Amino acid sequence: MNQKSQAKKITATLAAALPLALAAGTACAQNGLAGQPEPATQIAQTAPQMAQAAPAAQPAPTGLALAQQQNCMSCHSVNRAFMGPALRDVASKYASKPDAPTYLVHKIMEGSNGVWGTVPMPANTQLSPAQAATLARWILTLK
Ligand code: HEC
Fold it and tell me: How do the domains of the chain map onto residue ranges?
């Protein structure tokens, strides 16, 4: 690979890394990353311009906010069973199991029946695997 195309590739990588760098902005600055030589300096210099051009980035919702947004709370509550089990009970049941996050991601996405009673949970097909993982991790913190 010649130097030019390598430089191009680096630029492309930087562009891809920018949103991340923006999100991690303060943390990076505190860790002294922004003061390091290339390529962190380049990101730090470009970031303010990008921030002006792009509309204000909304952080992705997590935990309860994500569960509310994804309709989970129309059948679940943290503390009380109604349509579905209380999420705190789900956490108590699985939190000590090493494969709990994977198991719950699968159940959240595919649906569930026969574990907590006779009412089935339909598949939550609107979720991305990342959203399901975020929800599973949050539920497991509730016990
Ligand atoms: C239409 C109602 C309904 C909605 C919407 C719903 N659930 Fe459920 N959920 C249930 C029911 C009912 C059960 C119990 C199913 C069973 O007994 O296997 C359940 C079970 C679960 C379980 C336990 C599964 C197991 O194997 O023990 C988890 C975790 C869960 N739901 C998370 C979620 C999340 C996260 C969402 C939102 C993306 C969601 N649910 C949306 C009704 C619902």
Answer: 3-53, 63-140
Helix axes 87-94, 100-110, angle to 10 degrees: 140
In angstroms, rounded to a whole number, what is the distance separating the alpha carbons of residues 28 and 32?
A: 6
Is residue 75 within 6 Å of ligand 1 at its C-beta? Answer: yes
CATH code that applies to domain 63-140: 1.10.760.10
Give residue for tokens 């303060």. 26
State pLDDT tens for residues 52-86: 556 677 888 999 999 999 999 999 999 999 999 99
Show the tokens assigned to 94.
């699985």
pTM exceeding the 0.85 threshold for the entire prediction: no
Rounded to a whole number of angstroms, the CA Rg of the chain reads 21
Which of 83, 141, 140, 134 lies closest to 112, judged by CA?
83
| CA dihedral sign, ordered 129, 95, 77, 120 | positive
Determine whether the shortest distance from the Cβ of 72 to ligand 1 is under 6 A.
Answer: yes
55 lines ligand 1 (CB under 6 A): no
Q: What is the residue with the minimal CA distance to atom 30 of ligand 1? A: 108
